[in-house]
Design a protein that fits this description.
The first copy, chain A, is α+β, with helices and mostly antiparallel strands and about 100 residues long. The first copy, chain A, has two helices and four strands, in the order βαββαβ. A four-stranded antiparallel sheet of chain A has the order 2-3-1-4. Chains A, B, C, D, E, F, G, H, I, J: GO terms for molecular function: muconolactone delta-isomerase activity.
């Protein structure tokens, strides 16, 4: 089941740089593991912003929520979820 | 080059049904031809709305604009474009 | 899987009254059949507005979309969907 | 009498973790006691957000306000109340 | 139980003047009857706008909704309801 | 002359509790004195929020501003003023 | 007593041109008479828009409302009123 | 050339009171000097808010910007500029 | 003097196509004449929208307003003006 | 390829003045180098605000993002990107 997610990241200025770096590294590893598993289907950077649009393919809302709240950067993010489905005009097998 | 596009469709109630049907059919053919060419990379329906999120992969802003204004439903749409780029955490070859 | 849906209804003034009445009657029957099936779990009127908050319990986003776009009043509605899940503090068996 | 409530939680980063944990534990106990009493009829997590939609069934506005301002997390919440009533299409006895 | 209500009126330009006048007259009678009964506690015009702020004192949400949807001008109004309660600093007996 | 005022209170978390308590006590005394004088005609708590709707009856804008900026909590408030007048449908002597 | 008023004008396209012209002429005469009387203290056009910012100096809210609702263009306007008062830094006698 | 400016002031709570007082005094002197020169044509307090509406009469955008960024309170203000011009209905010589 | 202008065009669906075409042709000629005169310094299409961002270089607000309200499409446009000035970092002679 | 960018700058009050000054100096040098290269085509100050509208001419979204996130002030900016293209009415060679 597909979901469109926008994530805006806002790391507080007083977070020690080492701590920020460590969180960002964990975030990347976490994201890539989920991409490899097929659950995090797409991730794109939004030009000029510290933000991304992502597409998730998960079993249900519970799994999506567990993934999002498990993000190392979760507490510094504003997240907006939109449920998607196959478009009747789509010709791609993997747009489902 | 990738763009995120949201399209909201609002067909006026007084458009003759035959005309509406013909436009929608042309829209579908137009979209599928662009999907086959690789320029319209993804299209997803937004649950509960007559709207879609799409990803376009085009040469430049000009080509994107030509495609969008060429949509048979263009005059009944509200369109919002966001430029995207490869996310540093992405592992997919085709997220570029 | 649970979804929170807000529906705002706006029936055009020039819709013949008989037609409006017939659509509203079909809407009610459609809603009650889905309530009996358990898919439309709750529906509440919002005080002072021609609008409702509803909770749907469906298999997936596709089913939700099919139900919502099948509403006889769909073309006169503005719809906003929010995916829900069991809250960790919930004690009700049927809040899942 | 029914009310729809949206609660968004925003715990300040500089709140000591032990204090935050203690408040969250009290919040859960408080919520569950009110659920058991029947006054907090439903609570659902919003996917991807530290927020919930809840339905309260209380005697009047005063009781609702007392419950909400008594929430251990109240001072870290943004709360929005909407009064509800039975929908004419509802078939559930407990949607009143 | 007290409610704060904002009503914005927008009478369509093509409504025959006689019909509009008749609806407005019924609206006034309806409002005054409810004021006499004590249920419509206050009504004030907002300067420069075809709108009012009103305070209702009703048994419950159901009664409020019945009153508001019974307004002769209801279909030409945008209505926003906010539940109120006695303020701890109030000294007036009738602010309850 | 009547004014509708919405006040939202937001006391900073780092204000010493004793200082906050003292300000709130002064706020209450200040409000009640103005209520007794007839200038602060009504005050209602908004359910679920640290906010109120109030009605002031003052000589002019200057007096209203002096009262509002004199509020002990003024610097922690967001205030929105709307000028009111007698509604043509009002039957209450004191809605003027 | 001073008020800041923004007026946005939107004349419907299907209003016969002669009728529109006649209303606009009456509007101008009405405005100039009020300017001569000193009640409509200032009127400025907003660059690029069919809108104005005006300053009124009236006895009270009632008089302001009577003036605004008496505007020949009132039914085609969106109006927003803000109460003003003398600024403590003002040195002009007529900014009161 | 005329400009409409809204200024909202928000002095941070941790600014030492003496420093705040000194800035406010300089602000007043600065404003009055510009009023005397005729460049700051009007300034009015907005009732209930720490904000003002002002009218500036300057040579060009550059001069306006220099004046506004020179405000002692500039770094604590949110400023919104709207270009104005003489209204065709105006009868005042100095509304130009 | 420079101004940033956003124009959104919305041609009503019931405008006869010949009339629309004639207006659009006049709009183009009008724009190009102003571009040649140097007053309309830049015009860019916004990708995916029937809208443009433009830069005007005019003597004053009056001239800008005369140009904008003289646009053949003016009555079908929403226009938003922002006054600009030379940026202290600019190195271009013609960014003034 | 052209992009319209709005940048709003908000330097935190507790940033040491020397550090702020050094960042602003680097920002200026960075901007001027990009202007000289032709990639940062225009930059204008918005009157009354610490903000600018800029036009970039870059190879693609990637290059734009690299430039914007490389801004010394990036972490203190809110940035909004809009893709542009040649307007059909433009007569300037360099509006492409």
């Amino acid at each position: 089941m597909l979901f469109h997610v926008r994530m805006d990241v806002n790391i507080p200025r007083d977070l020690p740089q080492a701590e920020a770096g460590e969180i960002i590294a964990r975030e990347k590893a976490y994201s890539q593991e989920l991409q490899r598993s097929g659950k995090w289907r797409h991730i794109w950077r939004i030009a000029g912003e510290y933000a991304n649009y992502s597409i998730f393919d998960v079993k249900d809302n519970e799994e999506l929520h567990a993934i999002l709240t498990g993000l190392p950067l979760f507490k510094f993010m504003t997240i907006k979820v939109t449920p998607l489905l196959r478009h009747p005009s789509s010709i791609r097998d993997d747009d489902t």
